[in-house]
Amino acid sequence: MCRKEGGTSMAKAMIFIDGTWLYSNNSKLADSFHKNEFVLDYGKLPRILAQEISAQLNTGEVDVVRTHLFGSYAVNFDARDEDVAQRRRDFFMMLKEKYHYEVELFPINFRGRRLLRNDRDQDDHFEPREKCVDIALASSMMYYAAVPGSYDVAIPVVGDQDFKPVLQYVRRLGKRIAISSIKNSCYPEYADPVDKARVRDFDIIWLDDHLERLELKYERRLLRCESPLHTGARLIWTTYYPKKGEKFYCDKCRAEFAKQKTEEQQYIPDYGVPDHDDEYPSSVSTVPSTHATGEICSGVVKTTFPDRGFGFIQSLDGKDYFFHLTDLESELEFESLVDGLPVDFEIKREPIHDKAGAAQHVHACEYIDQ
Question: Taking residues 281-290, what's their average pLDDT?
Protein backbone atom coordinates (compact mmCIF):
# COMPACT_ATOMS: atom_id res chain seq x y z
CA MET A 1 0.00 0.00 0.00
CA CYS A 2 1.28 3.48 -0.85
CA ARG A 3 0.40 6.52 1.17
CA LYS A 4 -0.52 9.94 -0.16
CA GLU A 5 1.37 13.07 0.80
CA GLY A 6 0.46 16.35 -0.87
CA GLY A 7 -1.33 14.41 -3.58
CA THR A 8 1.79 12.39 -4.43
CA SER A 9 1.88 8.63 -4.07
CA MET A 10 4.74 7.52 -1.83
CA ALA A 11 5.94 3.94 -1.64
CA LYS A 12 7.11 2.89 1.83
CA ALA A 13 10.49 1.18 1.89
CA MET A 14 12.60 -0.60 4.48
CA ILE A 15 16.34 -1.15 4.05
CA PHE A 16 18.02 -4.31 5.38
CA ILE A 17 21.82 -4.16 5.41
CA ASP A 18 24.12 -7.13 5.89
CA GLY A 19 26.68 -5.05 7.77
CA THR A 20 29.31 -7.77 7.99
CA TRP A 21 29.21 -8.43 4.24
CA LEU A 22 29.28 -4.72 3.42
CA TYR A 23 32.20 -4.06 5.76
CA SER A 24 34.23 -7.02 4.47
CA ASN A 25 33.76 -5.87 0.86
CA ASN A 26 34.73 -2.26 1.45
CA SER A 27 38.08 -2.89 -0.25
CA LYS A 28 36.25 -3.78 -3.47
CA LEU A 29 34.50 -0.40 -3.39
CA ALA A 30 37.89 1.25 -2.95
CA ASP A 31 39.22 -0.66 -5.96
CA SER A 32 36.25 0.42 -8.04
CA PHE A 33 36.84 4.02 -6.97
CA HIS A 34 40.57 3.72 -7.76
CA LYS A 35 41.54 4.75 -4.25
CA ASN A 36 43.54 3.13 -1.46
CA GLU A 37 40.50 3.27 0.78
CA PHE A 38 36.84 4.18 0.60
CA VAL A 39 34.66 5.34 3.48
CA LEU A 40 30.94 4.89 2.95
CA ASP A 41 28.63 7.66 4.15
CA TYR A 42 25.93 5.69 5.97
CA GLY A 43 23.94 8.87 6.44
CA LYS A 44 23.54 9.29 2.67
CA LEU A 45 23.04 5.60 1.85
CA PRO A 46 19.29 5.37 2.62
CA ARG A 47 18.53 8.57 0.72
CA ILE A 48 20.48 7.51 -2.37
CA LEU A 49 18.87 4.06 -2.44
CA ALA A 50 15.44 5.68 -2.15
CA GLN A 51 16.24 8.01 -5.04
CA GLU A 52 17.26 5.08 -7.23
CA ILE A 53 14.04 3.19 -6.47
CA SER A 54 12.00 6.33 -7.06
CA ALA A 55 13.60 6.76 -10.49
CA GLN A 56 12.70 3.18 -11.44
CA LEU A 57 9.15 3.46 -10.10
CA ASN A 58 8.54 6.75 -11.90
CA THR A 59 5.57 7.35 -9.62
CA GLY A 60 6.90 9.78 -7.01
CA GLU A 61 9.15 9.73 -3.96
CA VAL A 62 10.01 6.71 -1.83
CA ASP A 63 9.62 7.03 1.94
CA VAL A 64 12.28 5.06 3.84
CA VAL A 65 10.51 4.26 7.09
CA ARG A 66 13.32 2.17 8.65
CA THR A 67 16.94 1.29 7.96
CA HIS A 68 18.10 -1.93 9.61
CA LEU A 69 21.75 -3.00 9.89
CA PHE A 70 22.84 -6.41 11.13
CA GLY A 71 26.42 -6.94 12.23
CA SER A 72 28.79 -8.39 14.79
CA TYR A 73 31.35 -7.26 17.34
CA ALA A 74 34.40 -8.91 18.87
CA VAL A 75 34.50 -10.26 22.42
CA ASN A 76 37.25 -12.04 24.38
CA PHE A 77 39.99 -10.78 22.08
CA ASP A 78 43.65 -9.92 22.67
CA ALA A 79 43.94 -6.69 24.67
CA ARG A 80 46.24 -5.20 22.03
CA ASP A 81 43.23 -4.87 19.71
CA GLU A 82 41.10 -2.95 22.20
CA ASP A 83 41.26 0.38 20.35
CA VAL A 84 40.24 -1.22 17.04
CA ALA A 85 37.35 -3.08 18.67
CA GLN A 86 36.20 0.05 20.52
CA ARG A 87 36.12 2.09 17.31
CA ARG A 88 33.91 -0.58 15.76
CA ARG A 89 31.50 -0.40 18.73
CA ASP A 90 31.52 3.40 18.48
CA PHE A 91 30.63 3.12 14.80
CA PHE A 92 27.52 1.07 15.57
CA MET A 93 26.52 3.50 18.29
CA MET A 94 26.91 6.39 15.82
CA LEU A 95 24.56 4.67 13.37
CA LYS A 96 21.89 4.52 16.06
CA GLU A 97 22.36 7.95 17.57
CA LYS A 98 23.18 10.08 14.53
CA TYR A 99 21.35 8.33 11.70
CA HIS A 100 18.63 6.49 13.66
CA TYR A 101 19.46 3.06 12.25
CA GLU A 102 17.94 -0.01 13.83
CA VAL A 103 21.10 -1.99 14.68
CA GLU A 104 21.18 -5.65 15.70
CA LEU A 105 24.57 -6.98 16.78
CA PHE A 106 25.89 -10.41 17.66
CA PRO A 107 29.16 -11.27 19.45
CA ILE A 108 32.07 -13.16 17.91
CA ASN A 109 34.24 -14.93 20.49
CA PHE A 110 37.92 -14.64 19.55
CA ARG A 111 39.04 -16.76 22.53
CA GLY A 112 41.85 -14.38 23.46
CA ARG A 113 43.29 -14.09 19.96
CA ARG A 114 44.18 -11.11 17.77
CA LEU A 115 41.41 -9.81 15.51
CA LEU A 116 43.40 -9.98 12.27
CA ARG A 117 44.64 -13.30 10.95
CA ASN A 118 47.98 -11.72 9.97
CA ASP A 119 48.58 -10.79 13.61
CA ARG A 120 48.13 -14.38 14.86
CA ASP A 121 50.63 -17.20 14.97
CA GLN A 122 51.00 -18.87 11.59
CA ASP A 123 50.26 -22.26 13.15
CA ASP A 124 47.03 -21.01 14.72
CA HIS A 125 44.18 -22.19 12.49
CA PHE A 126 41.45 -20.55 14.54
CA GLU A 127 38.59 -19.12 12.47
CA PRO A 128 36.16 -16.71 14.17
CA ARG A 129 32.58 -17.85 13.73
CA GLU A 130 29.85 -15.31 13.16
CA LYS A 131 26.39 -16.43 14.17
CA CYS A 132 22.87 -15.17 13.64
CA VAL A 133 23.52 -12.15 11.38
CA ASP A 134 22.04 -13.70 8.21
CA ILE A 135 19.20 -15.31 10.15
CA ALA A 136 18.35 -12.05 11.92
CA LEU A 137 18.24 -10.10 8.64
CA ALA A 138 16.06 -12.69 6.93
CA SER A 139 13.73 -12.97 9.95
CA SER A 140 13.33 -9.21 10.21
CA MET A 141 12.56 -8.81 6.51
CA MET A 142 10.02 -11.62 6.67
CA TYR A 143 8.43 -10.37 9.86
CA TYR A 144 7.81 -6.83 8.59
CA ALA A 145 6.57 -8.20 5.27
CA ALA A 146 3.82 -9.95 7.22
CA VAL A 147 2.87 -6.80 9.17
CA PRO A 148 0.17 -4.92 7.24
CA GLY A 149 1.29 -1.50 6.03
CA SER A 150 4.89 -1.80 7.25
CA TYR A 151 6.53 -1.49 3.83
CA ASP A 152 5.87 -1.82 0.12
CA VAL A 153 9.48 -2.25 -1.01
CA ALA A 154 12.26 -4.13 0.75
CA ILE A 155 15.78 -2.96 -0.13
CA PRO A 156 18.25 -5.65 0.96
CA VAL A 157 21.90 -4.56 0.77
CA VAL A 158 23.34 -8.04 0.42
CA GLY A 159 25.46 -10.30 -1.76
CA ASP A 160 25.38 -13.79 -0.24
CA GLN A 161 23.39 -16.65 -1.69
CA ASP A 162 21.84 -17.43 1.71
CA PHE A 163 19.20 -14.73 1.28
CA LYS A 164 17.67 -16.22 -1.87
CA PRO A 165 14.81 -18.05 -0.06
CA VAL A 166 13.69 -15.04 1.98
CA LEU A 167 13.72 -12.79 -1.10
CA GLN A 168 11.46 -15.27 -2.86
CA TYR A 169 9.06 -15.61 0.06
CA VAL A 170 8.82 -11.86 0.67
CA ARG A 171 7.80 -11.42 -2.97
CA ARG A 172 5.16 -14.13 -2.54
CA LEU A 173 3.69 -12.03 0.26
CA GLY A 174 3.11 -9.27 -2.30
CA LYS A 175 6.10 -7.06 -1.46
CA ARG A 176 8.57 -5.76 -3.99
CA ILE A 177 12.31 -6.39 -3.73
CA ALA A 178 15.07 -4.00 -4.82
CA ILE A 179 18.48 -5.58 -4.31
CA SER A 180 21.52 -3.38 -3.77
CA SER A 181 24.91 -5.06 -4.01
CA ILE A 182 28.57 -4.80 -5.02
CA LYS A 183 29.95 -6.02 -8.32
CA ASN A 184 32.16 -9.12 -8.00
CA SER A 185 30.67 -9.75 -4.54
CA CYS A 186 27.14 -10.60 -5.55
CA TYR A 187 25.50 -14.01 -6.00
CA PRO A 188 25.08 -14.31 -9.81
CA GLU A 189 21.36 -15.15 -9.72
CA TYR A 190 20.61 -11.79 -8.06
CA ALA A 191 22.02 -9.98 -11.10
CA ASP A 192 20.52 -12.30 -13.73
CA PRO A 193 18.76 -9.98 -16.26
CA VAL A 194 16.01 -12.58 -16.76
CA ASP A 195 15.66 -13.11 -13.00
CA LYS A 196 14.97 -16.83 -13.29
CA ALA A 197 15.12 -17.14 -9.49
CA ARG A 198 12.35 -14.52 -9.10
CA VAL A 199 14.13 -12.58 -6.36
CA ARG A 200 13.63 -8.93 -7.38
CA ASP A 201 11.31 -6.40 -8.95
CA PHE A 202 13.81 -3.71 -9.94
CA ASP A 203 17.11 -3.49 -11.74
CA ILE A 204 19.84 -4.23 -9.25
CA ILE A 205 21.36 -1.13 -7.65
CA TRP A 206 25.14 -1.40 -7.80
CA LEU A 207 26.82 0.60 -5.05
CA ASP A 208 29.86 0.72 -7.33
CA ASP A 209 27.94 3.02 -9.69
CA HIS A 210 27.27 5.65 -7.02
CA LEU A 211 30.58 5.94 -5.18
CA GLU A 212 30.99 9.64 -5.85
CA ARG A 213 27.74 10.35 -4.04
CA LEU A 214 28.27 7.69 -1.37
CA GLU A 215 31.77 8.69 -0.31
CA LEU A 216 32.02 10.24 3.14
CA LYS A 217 33.39 13.77 2.83
CA TYR A 218 35.34 14.73 5.92
CA GLU A 219 34.95 18.25 7.26
CA ARG A 220 37.56 19.59 9.67
CA ARG A 221 36.54 21.50 12.77
CA LEU A 222 38.04 22.70 16.06
CA LEU A 223 37.38 20.59 19.16
CA ARG A 224 38.81 20.75 22.65
CA CYS A 225 40.83 17.71 23.78
CA GLU A 226 39.60 16.72 27.25
CA SER A 227 42.40 14.31 28.14
CA PRO A 228 43.99 15.06 31.53
CA LEU A 229 47.26 13.87 29.99
CA HIS A 230 47.13 16.35 27.11
CA THR A 231 50.04 18.73 26.59
CA GLY A 232 50.05 21.90 24.49
CA ALA A 233 47.10 23.77 23.00
CA ARG A 234 43.85 21.95 23.65
CA LEU A 235 41.94 23.20 20.59
CA ILE A 236 42.63 20.69 17.83
CA TRP A 237 41.59 20.53 14.16
CA THR A 238 39.94 17.16 13.55
CA THR A 239 37.53 15.28 11.29
CA TYR A 240 36.37 13.10 14.21
CA TYR A 241 32.75 13.47 15.33
CA PRO A 242 32.22 12.27 18.93
CA LYS A 243 28.95 10.57 19.67
CA LYS A 244 26.48 12.18 22.08
CA GLY A 245 28.01 12.61 25.52
CA GLU A 246 31.42 11.34 24.39
CA LYS A 247 34.52 13.25 25.40
CA PHE A 248 36.86 14.23 22.59
CA TYR A 249 40.50 13.16 22.70
CA CYS A 250 43.02 14.20 20.06
CA ASP A 251 44.83 11.62 17.95
CA LYS A 252 48.02 11.99 19.97
CA CYS A 253 46.21 11.29 23.24
CA ARG A 254 44.23 8.41 21.74
CA ALA A 255 47.46 6.83 20.55
CA GLU A 256 48.91 7.26 24.03
CA PHE A 257 45.79 5.71 25.57
CA ALA A 258 46.07 2.70 23.27
CA LYS A 259 49.69 2.30 24.28
CA GLN A 260 48.78 2.58 27.96
CA LYS A 261 46.04 -0.03 27.68
CA THR A 262 48.35 -2.46 25.94
CA GLU A 263 51.15 -1.97 28.45
CA GLU A 264 49.01 -2.04 31.58
CA GLN A 265 46.88 -5.00 30.53
CA GLN A 266 50.00 -7.09 30.16
CA TYR A 267 49.87 -7.32 33.93
CA ILE A 268 46.22 -8.33 34.08
CA PRO A 269 46.75 -12.13 33.82
CA ASP A 270 48.33 -11.92 37.32
CA TYR A 271 45.88 -9.23 38.40
CA GLY A 272 48.47 -6.56 37.86
CA VAL A 273 51.25 -7.84 40.06
CA PRO A 274 54.62 -7.49 38.29
CA ASP A 275 57.48 -9.38 39.94
CA HIS A 276 59.31 -6.13 40.60
CA ASP A 277 56.42 -4.12 41.99
CA ASP A 278 53.51 -4.90 44.32
CA GLU A 279 51.55 -1.71 43.78
CA TYR A 280 48.77 -3.38 41.77
CA PRO A 281 45.73 -5.07 43.36
CA SER A 282 45.87 -8.84 43.81
CA SER A 283 43.09 -9.75 46.24
CA VAL A 284 40.62 -11.20 43.74
CA SER A 285 38.08 -13.95 44.26
CA THR A 286 38.66 -17.18 42.33
CA VAL A 287 34.92 -17.78 42.15
CA PRO A 288 33.85 -17.91 38.47
CA SER A 289 32.13 -14.77 37.23
CA THR A 290 28.36 -14.96 36.99
CA HIS A 291 28.20 -12.27 34.30
CA ALA A 292 28.70 -12.20 30.52
CA THR A 293 30.07 -9.76 27.96
CA GLY A 294 27.66 -6.88 27.34
CA GLU A 295 25.90 -7.30 30.67
CA ILE A 296 25.43 -4.32 32.99
CA CYS A 297 26.92 -4.88 36.44
CA SER A 298 27.41 -2.99 39.67
CA GLY A 299 30.53 -2.70 41.76
CA VAL A 300 32.89 -0.29 43.45
CA VAL A 301 36.08 1.43 42.38
CA LYS A 302 38.79 -0.75 43.91
CA THR A 303 41.79 1.38 43.10
CA THR A 304 43.05 3.91 40.59
CA PHE A 305 46.45 4.97 39.30
CA PRO A 306 46.14 8.70 38.51
CA ASP A 307 49.52 9.01 36.84
CA ARG A 308 48.65 6.22 34.40
CA GLY A 309 44.96 6.94 33.78
CA PHE A 310 43.50 3.56 34.69
CA GLY A 311 42.10 1.57 37.58
CA PHE A 312 40.14 -1.49 38.67
CA ILE A 313 36.51 -2.04 39.61
CA GLN A 314 35.44 -4.93 41.82
CA SER A 315 31.99 -6.32 41.02
CA LEU A 316 29.59 -7.75 43.56
CA ASP A 317 30.80 -11.29 42.83
CA GLY A 318 34.38 -10.31 43.71
CA LYS A 319 35.78 -10.15 40.19
CA ASP A 320 38.11 -7.37 39.06
CA TYR A 321 37.59 -5.35 35.88
CA PHE A 322 40.22 -3.11 34.34
CA PHE A 323 39.07 0.32 33.14
CA HIS A 324 40.80 3.25 31.47
CA LEU A 325 39.79 6.89 31.83
CA THR A 326 38.34 6.67 28.30
CA ASP A 327 35.86 4.05 29.59
CA LEU A 328 34.18 6.60 31.90
CA GLU A 329 30.87 8.20 30.98
CA SER A 330 30.80 11.98 30.65
CA GLU A 331 29.53 12.69 34.18
CA LEU A 332 32.57 11.01 35.76
CA GLU A 333 35.96 12.68 35.92
CA PHE A 334 38.89 10.35 36.41
CA GLU A 335 40.55 12.76 38.87
CA SER A 336 37.45 12.69 41.10
CA LEU A 337 37.29 8.89 41.50
CA VAL A 338 37.77 7.57 45.02
CA ASP A 339 38.17 4.01 46.26
CA GLY A 340 34.81 2.51 47.20
CA LEU A 341 32.78 4.71 44.84
CA PRO A 342 29.67 2.75 43.71
CA VAL A 343 29.49 2.42 39.93
CA ASP A 344 27.59 0.62 37.22
CA PHE A 345 29.45 -0.61 34.14
CA GLU A 346 29.15 -2.76 31.05
CA ILE A 347 31.35 -5.81 30.74
CA LYS A 348 33.69 -5.36 27.79
CA ARG A 349 35.61 -8.56 28.41
CA GLU A 350 34.84 -11.33 30.88
CA PRO A 351 37.28 -12.46 33.58
CA ILE A 352 38.92 -15.78 32.70
CA HIS A 353 40.42 -17.90 35.50
CA ASP A 354 43.01 -15.61 37.15
CA LYS A 355 42.67 -12.93 34.49
CA ALA A 356 40.74 -9.75 35.18
CA GLY A 357 38.01 -8.62 32.85
CA ALA A 358 37.58 -5.19 31.33
CA ALA A 359 34.83 -2.61 31.83
CA GLN A 360 33.37 0.16 29.69
CA HIS A 361 30.59 2.76 29.96
CA VAL A 362 31.37 3.25 33.65
CA HIS A 363 29.06 5.65 35.46
CA ALA A 364 28.27 6.49 39.05
CA CYS A 365 25.30 5.05 40.92
CA GLU A 366 23.79 6.18 44.21
CA TYR A 367 23.97 2.80 45.94
CA ILE A 368 24.59 -0.87 45.29
CA ASP A 369 21.79 -3.35 45.77
CA GLN A 370 23.40 -6.32 47.49
Answer: 47
